[in-house]
């Protein structure tokens, strides 16, 4: 990995204010590990409080609405997330695509709104087990990315991160081999270069996500073109999350 590895914790729908102690502990530990860029995406209810509690780590949101404001009960706009202290937003996560019926077009509209609000975007993509078994994983992931990424993007290396998360690896304890991850990341890199040009396409970080834990982090992060990890379950305690950060 050429740059500082980027390790992002996605707390999903976990955490009340009691979890801020974990955020503080992660932040303190990250101050001694400056070779790794560390970030957390708590649920919306904790974004502002986390932002106020931490000094070193990045804080982001897990979703945003494509509109800036209006009659959208229960939704949060990118501007509101930024106002609460978010610096980035995770978009296109398979749990939102599956559980909320988010289409590529909607994910793209959200990405455009996020960028307009000054948020960096972590764009998730990944194939189901059926798609992988059918030998169509690369085709599926590239098509998903092509249709979900914003059509134009200033400073892609700074504003965009891609997270490859095979759906069958999320929360299951199963992971692809480092070779399979490297093969997919090389395909994603080629697409980014095609879309954004040689220099900008090469500057976008590509994270791996799916059952990353301290025990497998070193091997998974050493795979070709892996610039860090998006971590779900193992980001919920400072101890397990920092185990991954240390391995990175
Ligand atoms: C995720 O959902 O982004 C994720 C990677 O989850 P887990 O680490 O729990 O597999």
Automatic annotation (TrEMBL):
User: Is Cytoplasm set as a keyword in this record?
Assistant: yes
Report which reactions are catalysed by this protein: L-erythrulose 1-phosphate = D-erythrulose 4-phosphate; D-glyceraldehyde 3-phosphate = dihydroxyacetone phosphate
Q: EC number(s)?
A: 5.3.1.1
The active-site annotation reads 93, 165
* InterPro entries membership: Aldolase_TIM, TIM_sf, TrioseP_Isoase_bac/euk, Triosephosphate_isomerase, Triosephosphate_isomerase_AS
Enzyme class comes to: isomerase
Keyword annotations from UniProtKB, A to Z: Cytoplasm, Gluconeogenesis, Glycolysis, Isomerase
Q: Which residues bind substrate?
A: 10-12, 171, 211, 232-233
Its localization reads: Cytoplasm
Name the Gene Ontology molecular function terms of this record: triose-phosphate isomerase activity
Q: Which pathway, metabolic or otherwise, does it act in?
A: Carbohydrate degradation; glycolysis; D-glyceraldehyde 3-phosphate from glycerone phosphate: step 1/1; Carbohydrate metabolism; erythritol degradation; Carbohydrate biosynthesis; gluconeogenesis
Q: What does this protein do?
A: Involved in the gluconeogenesis. Catalyzes stereospecifically the conversion of dihydroxyacetone phosphate (DHAP) to D-glyceraldehyde-3-phosphate (G3P).
Q: How does it assemble?
A: Homodimer.
**Family recorded in the similarity comment:** Belongs to the triosephosphate isomerase family.
Task: Kindly provide the name given to this protein in its UniProt entry.
Answer: Triosephosphate isomerase
Protein species of origin: Pelagerythrobacter marensis
Species lineage? Bacteria, Pseudomonadati, Pseudomonadota, Alphaproteobacteria, Sphingomonadales
